[in-house]
Amino acid sequence: MVNVTLKLNGETRSASVPPETTLLRLLRDQFNLTGAKLGCDVGDCGACTVIVDGKPVNSCLMLVGQVDGREILTIEGLATADHLHPLQKLFEHFGSLQCGFCGPGVIMSAKALLDENPDPSTQEIRDALGGNLCRCTGYTKMIEAIKGASCILRGEEVPAVKSA
Amino acid sequence: MACMWYPIGFTVAANPSAAVVKINEDGTATLLTGTVETGQGSLTILAQIVAQELGIATDDVHVVSADTDATPMDTGAIASRTTYVTGNAARMAAEKAKLTLFEVAAPLLGVKPTQLEAQDHKIFVKGFPQRNMHIGDVANHARVVSGQPPIGSASFNPETLALDPETGQGKPFGTYVYATQIAEVDVDDETGEVEVVRVVASHDCGTAINPMLVEGQVEGGVAMGIGFALEEEMLFDANGRHINPNLTNYIMPTSLDTPDIEVDIVDSYDPTGPFGAKGVGEPTLVPTAAAIGNAIYDAVGVRITSLPATAEKVFKALQAKREQQPKQIGAGVPQNGGANGKPAV
Amino acid sequence: MADKPKVVDKPDVLQRPDILKPQAPAPLVTFPVEVVVPEGRQQTPAVGQRASRADGRLHGLGQTKYIDDMYFPNMLFAKIKRAGIASALIKSIDTKEAEAMPGVIAVITGRDIPCNSFGPSLKDQPVLADTRVFHAGDGVAAVAAVSEQIATEALEKIKVEYEPLTPVLDPLESLKLETPGIHAPSANIYGHKIIKKGDVEKAFAESDHIFEGSFRTQMVEHVPLEPYACIAQWDANGRVTIYSTLGRITLGRADVGRTLGIPMSRVRIVATVVGGNFGGKNEIRAEPALALLSKKTGRPVKCVYTRVEEFTSSTTRHPLIMDYKTGVTKQGKILGRKIRLVLDGGAYCSWSETTLGKACILSAGPYNIENLHAEAFVVYTNKTMTGAMRGFGAPQVCFAYESHMDDIAHTLGIDPLEIRLLNAFDEGSLSPTSQKLHSVVVKESLLRAAKLFGWNGLGDAGSGNGA
Question: Beta partners for C214?
C-alpha cells in the first residue's frame, strides 16, 4: 500500500491504496467522484480526462504515486456553490452533450485550454479536443459552446449560433 | 452528393409503445414512458409533445422512464421510432388527460367540452380567449371538487401490411424520411489521404419538434458516417480472431476528422405523426459514405467500391488509374489526376 | 440451488497489496442548484422550441449516474471468459481452480442457465456457450468475485478444452450450399428476401444503356463511449432487479424471465441514462448470467464490459456485398434495376432478419423504378454477431445505389443532381413494395442541399477537390 496526499478540487485529501491504482480508480472508487469515466482504461478515449497541475491528463494512465502532492481538478470541482462554470452553462444551453458520457472529459480538456489560451480559434479548440472521443455529437456544438464560454470569460458577448 | 430514404419503425411487425400522462394539481404534468434515453434526447422530445398537447411549457412536464415496474411497455429506442411511435402514444395519452380537464372546466365556463382549447397554460373557449381558466385551477378543481384526477393512457402502433412472400409487395412501414448530403473532400493524390472539408446535410424529419436536437443528431450521424466511409473497420485474422478490438487500432473520427457540418431541416409535415413529426435518429448517417465516395470520384476520378476508403485504397486506385492513362505528349494537353487549376464543384 | 455463499471476509483477501478495496460511497453534495430555467424550456407552444435537455445540466456537472457509477453494499464484480477461438466444440470446462481462489465467490457456465438461448427473432444465441463456440468473443463462463481484479485473474484459472473446427469467415463461401452448416444441420443461409415488380429483363432489353456495379462494406462497431454495464440483485421474495444499459427493457424483461424460467412479474429491469446505444444495446447480453451469479451468491453483482469486449462480444454492423445492374434511357431515366445482396450475418441471428428486410426494401434507392428484382440473403459466419446498428443495412445499400447513380451520371455526361431529380420519388409515388408514399420530400432535400452547398453542375475530376 502507498499513502498519497493531494489537493483535490481545492481540498487536501489522503488515501492509502495499492501502488498500481490509477488516478481514475482513486477518484471513482476511493473518493466517489464518478464524473471521470472509464471508457477504455488505456488512454485512447479521453473520457477520464482530469486536470493535474494545470494540464489535462488521461487519469487512467497515471498511477497514484505520480499524483502525490499535486493539485487535481475534476468536473466536480468546476462549478462553485452558487454558479455553473460558463462551459457548463453553454454546454447545457447549446445542447453540446447527448449521452453525456464523454462530457466531463471534454469539459476538462476545454477548461485546460481556456486557462492557457483565453481566445482560441476553432482549429485550436479542435486540437485541444483531439484526445476526447465522442460518438454522439460530431463535436460541432461542443466547439460552439467552448467558443462562447471563452467570450464569457473575457467579458464579451456570446455570438449567436447558426441554426437549421 | 447522395440522397436517401429511410423508414420509421419496424418492418411490418408490431412495434407498439404505450404512455401514461398524469396532470398534477397545479397544471404541470408527468409522463410515464418505457422508452430508454440513450443520448438522442427522446425524453425532451416526448416532454415537448405532451406539453404542446396540454398547452403548457416543456419544463412543466416531468418524464419518468425506463423501469419495467413503473412505466408502460415500449418496443424500445430503436429503428428511429421514438418520436413517431412513442410520441404518438404520449400525445394521445395527454389528450385523454386533457379531455378530463375539459369535462371539468366546461360547466365552469358555461360551454360544452368540445368548445374548449388548451394553450399558454390556460383552458379557454375556442374563439373567446378572454373566457378562460388557468390550467392549474382546473386541475385542482378536478381533484378536490369533481373527484376526477386527470390521467390518460394510450398506445400506438404504426399501420402496416404484411409483405407477400413471393413478390415482397405490401406496406412495411408507417412513414419514411428523406435526405440529401453533399460532401466536399480534399484528396492528397500523393498519399491517397482523404480529408472531409465540408458537409451540407438537408434532412426531412417531418415537423422538427426540437431543431437543436435534430441538428445534434445530424452532426453526430455525419461524424459516424465519415468514420464508416474512411476509417473504421473490424479486422479478423485467418483464424477468425479479432486483430483490432481496441480504440488504438480501430480508428474512429475525432474532432480533427470532422468538419463543421451545415444542417438544413426540410419543411415537411406528416399527418400520421405527432404534430407532423417523423424521426431522425438513423437517417443521419445513411448517405454520408456515398456522398464522400462520390466526392472522391469528383476530385480525382477514382471510384472506390469498398469501404472504408482508406488512404491505401485511394492511393492504389490512383496508381492504377495513372498506369492506365496513355502518356500525353504534346503542348497544351493536360494530364488527368494532377491539379489543372479548374475549381471543382 | 443448494450452494451457500462462501464466507468471503477472510482477513487476507482484501489486504493483498495490489487490490483496491472499493469504499462505501461518501455523501455526494449536489450543488449548485440553479433554478434559472433556460428560456427554450419555458416557452409555449412547446413544439419547435430549441429546448435544452433536462439531463444536459447534470451531464455538464458530472452528476448523471450511469450504471458503472452505481454502487451497492456488498457488491461483487463479474467478468466473463471469452472463447478466443472462432469455431470449436467445447469438450469440457473445469472451474474448480477458479472457484477455490480466495475472493472468488461463484462461477457459472452455460449449463447453469435454465433456458440457454435468446434472440430478437431466431433464438440461436446462448447466454454462455455450452457445447459449441461460434465466434471468438463467445462467453464460456462467468465469475463473481470481491474485486474486478480478482475476477479477471480467476478467468485465467478456468480451463476449457476445445476441439477446434474450421471457421467459415467469407460470406460468399458460406453462401455455397455445400459449405457445412455453422449452426448445423441447417444450411448457412438463414434468411432470404425477394422483391419483384414488373419485368426487369424486358426493361433491360428496352434500355439504351446497361450499367453494372459491385460494392462492399465492412464490419464496424457502434463504439458507444459507455461500455455495456449491468447490476443484478434479488430480494427475499425472489424478485430480481436488473439495472442495465439495455435499450429495450420490455423485451429484456421477457428474455430474462424466459432464460431463467421465472415469471415476468418477478423481474424488474431499470435503465438509467445510457452512454450511447446506436443499436448495440438492444438485446440482452449477460443479464441472465449476472442474475444467476447474484442468486447464487446472495449479493448484488456488477459487470462492466472492457473496451475489448465491446468489440469482440457485442453486435456489429453487417458487412454487405452488393451487386447492381441498372438499365437506363440515354436521358438517364431508370427503366429497370436488378440487385443481389449478401449480408454477412455473423455468428448469431440477432437483428439480421430486420436488417435483411430493410436492406432489401431500401436497396433500389428513393427512385421510381417500375421493373425491379431485389434479392437478399443473410448467411452465418464464424465472426462477431452482426445485429442492429444505426441504419439496419441502409448506409450500406445507400453507398451502393448512390455510387452507382453517380457512375451512371458521369458516363452519360449528366449532372448528378439532374439525374436524381429525374428519377426520385414524388408525393404519391409507389415504393418498391408498391406502397403509396406520403410526405415525400426527397427532391426538396436535393434542391435545398444543392443550393446551400453552391452546387454548380457536373464536377471536374482531377483538381484534388471534389464534391
Answer: C323
- The model's confidence at residue B337, banded by pLDDT at 50, 70 and 90, is very low
Q: Which residues of B are catalytic?
A: 282
Q: Kindly tell me if the per-residue pLDDT of A68 is higher than 80.
A: yes
Q: Where are the alpha helices (DSSP H) in C176-274?
A: 200-206, 249-260
Size of interface B-C (CB pairs under 8 A): 462
CB-based contact, A1 to chain C, within 8 Å: yes
Cell numbers standing for residue B232: 473504421
CA C326, C327, C332, C333 torsion: positive or negative? negative
Q: Does residue C24 register a pLDDT over 60?
A: no
Helix axes B288-300, C394-412, angle to 10 degrees: 30
User: What are residue C269's DSSP bridge partners?
Assistant: C242
List all residues of chain C from 344 to 363 with a beta carbon under 8 Å from chain B.
354, 357-358, 360-362
Residue B231 near chain A (CB below 8 Å) = no
* CA separation for the pair C399, C420 (Å, rounded): 15
Can you give the pLDDT at residue B260? Answer: 86
**Judged by CB atoms within 8 Å, which residues 59-78 of C form the interface with A?**
59-66, 68-69, 71
Q: What is the mean pLDDT of residues C117-145?
A: 95
Q: Mean pLDDT throughout A128-143?
A: 97
Cβ atoms C305, C278 nearer than 8 A: no
SS3 state of residue C453: helix
CA A7 – CA A1 distance, rounded (Å): 20
Q: Which of A44, A129, A136 sits opposite B255 (nearest CB)?
A: A129
B307, B243 Cβ separation under 8 angstroms: no
Chain B positions in Cβ-Cβ contact with residue C278 (cut-off 8 Å): 38, 224
Distance of CA C257 to the CA centre of its chain: 22
Chosen from B212, B232, B255 to mutate, greatest number of chain A CBs within 10 A: B255
pLDDT of residue C25: 53
CB < 8 Å to C73, chain A: none
CA proximity to C467, closest of B105, B147, B180: B180
pLDDT mean over C90-95: 97
Q: Where are the alpha helices (DSSP H) in chain B?
A: 42-54, 87-109, 135-141, 211-226, 288-300, 311-324
> If DSSP codes are grouped into helix, strand and coil, which group holds residue B125?
strand
Beta strands in C83-216 (DSSP E): 88-94, 104-109, 132-133, 139-145, 159-164, 189-197, 209-216
- Distance from the A129 Cα atom to the nearest Cα atom in chain C, whole angstroms: 15
C441 vs B136: CA distance, rounded Å: 41
In this structure, how many other beta carbons lie within 10 angstroms of the beta carbon of residue B315?
Answer: 18
Mean pLDDT, to the nearest integer, of C172-195?
A: 85
Helix (H) or strand (E) holding C372: strand C371-379
Res C458: pLDDT: 62
Does the beta-carbon distance from B240 to C87 stay under 8 Å? Answer: yes
Chains that touch C (3 or more CB pairs under 8 A): A, B
What ipTM does the predicted assembly reach?
0.96
**Average pLDDT of span B102-111:** 96
Whether B57 and C43 have beta carbons less than 8 Å apart is answered as yes
- What pLDDT, on a 0 to 100 scale, did the predictor assign at position B345? 32
